[in-house]
Amino acid sequence: MTSTDTLSAAGSVAASISANAERLSSALNEHMRNSFQPDSRKLLRRFNASEVSELTGISMSNLRTRHQEGDFPDVETDSRGRRLYSAADIDAIRHVMARTGRNGEAYLPGRREGDKLQVISIVNFKGGSSKTTTAVHLAQRYALRGYRVLAIDMDPQASLTTMFGYRPEIEFAEGGTVYDALRYEDPVPLSHVVRKTYFHNLDIAPAGLMLSEYETETAYALQHRLEPPFTQRLAIALDEIEADYDLVIIDCPPQLGFTTMSALLASTGLLITVVPSMLDVASMAQFLEMAGETIRALEEAAGTIDWDFLKFLVARYEPTDVPQSQMAGFLRSILLDQVLTNPMLKSTAISDAGMTQQTIYEIDPAQVVKKTLDRILESVNGVADEFEAVIQAAWGRETD
């Protein structure tokens, strides 16, 4: 049967769209069940000693010695006797080193007394700029690095939520998303929608299609002066869970609406992703101009808005692409040190992992060509580590 026949049989365009949605939803459910068997939820793989050394800064020799001396907890081993560590094992080892190692506080890089919660919005006006890819990889990397992380999905398309193994259109059709904490009628505490993930130290406030209602409701609220205004709603929601996290990473929708503005106004810092092409850079320039005008108007009404940092990340970068290299150089010449030195490379490893809602930290290294995986890990880790230094500087700490 052709697509035209299907449309005629369905009786209307609306019925055809609904039928297609139902078939796709069913197929996606089956795909996810097959991907995550034997459990219906995703599970995080274990990490080898080399990965633990890179994540914690503990040398391989010290790792072995500490195990032999009984300082570290027993961990799983493979058939060859090599140790395999869960994310919780890595966290336990961090705390041992914090108590007994030299410069122990370095093993716990999160907030200390007097440090404020860092709320980081990842934004761009254009879709396809790797916002979600960046958000999920940073959130996971920082959780593995020892931070307590909350990921907030502020995009009604809910791609970030899907990456964590949820089916938003099914599981959150009746509620349970960040919208419930932002809505104007009977909002719930943010903690009521936050969910633990299969990543130790990483929680998520999921999104769903209902979040799109926030735009319409906010327009109505502004007309009727409903309180608190959209400029404060996410910030107020975050106050309730502020003590539970070191970092909040927000994946914003690709438009400058009330949802994005709510995120920006609750943030302590911004990371703007940009693909180094003329069209993408032009789109980003438009986004910045619109954002600047909007924020200027808000400042006139509510006072100065200040962020600890604003950084740009060159994403989906192909070093061998001459026009891309030229455009990346152009960006750096204009925006100077606001552009992170490390770019996020375009890689088949990321796209292949995404087919099963996984990241490069989740995939089994044995399933990927080592050279390909090493290359993208070096890129993503480089971005995360450089941006981590920016976060640490916002807390008044110097990093090597």
TrEMBL record:
<protein>
    <submittedName>
        <fullName>Plasmid partitioning protein RepA</fullName>
    </submittedName>
</protein>
<dbReference type="InterPro" id="IPR027417">
    <property type="entry name" value="P-loop_NTPase"/>
</dbReference>
<feature type="domain" description="AAA">
    <location>
        <begin position="118"/>
        <end position="294"/>
    </location>
</feature>
<dbReference type="Pfam" id="PF13411">
    <property type="entry name" value="MerR_1"/>
</dbReference>
<dbReference type="InterPro" id="IPR025669">
    <property type="entry name" value="AAA_dom"/>
</dbReference>
<keyword id="KW-0614">Plasmid</keyword>
<dbReference type="InterPro" id="IPR000551">
    <property type="entry name" value="MerR-type_HTH_dom"/>
</dbReference>
<dbReference type="Pfam" id="PF13614">
    <property type="entry name" value="AAA_31"/>
</dbReference>
<dbReference type="InterPro" id="IPR009061">
    <property type="entry name" value="DNA-bd_dom_put_sf"/>
</dbReference>
<dbReference type="GO" id="GO:0003677">
    <property type="term" value="F:DNA binding"/>
</dbReference>
<dbReference type="InterPro" id="IPR050678">
    <property type="entry name" value="DNA_Partitioning_ATPase"/>
</dbReference>
<dbReference type="InterPro" id="IPR017818">
    <property type="entry name" value="Plasmid_partition_RepA"/>
</dbReference>
<dbReference type="GO" id="GO:0006355">
    <property type="term" value="P:regulation of DNA-templated transcription"/>
</dbReference>
<feature type="domain" description="HTH merR-type">
    <location>
        <begin position="49"/>
        <end position="97"/>
    </location>
</feature>
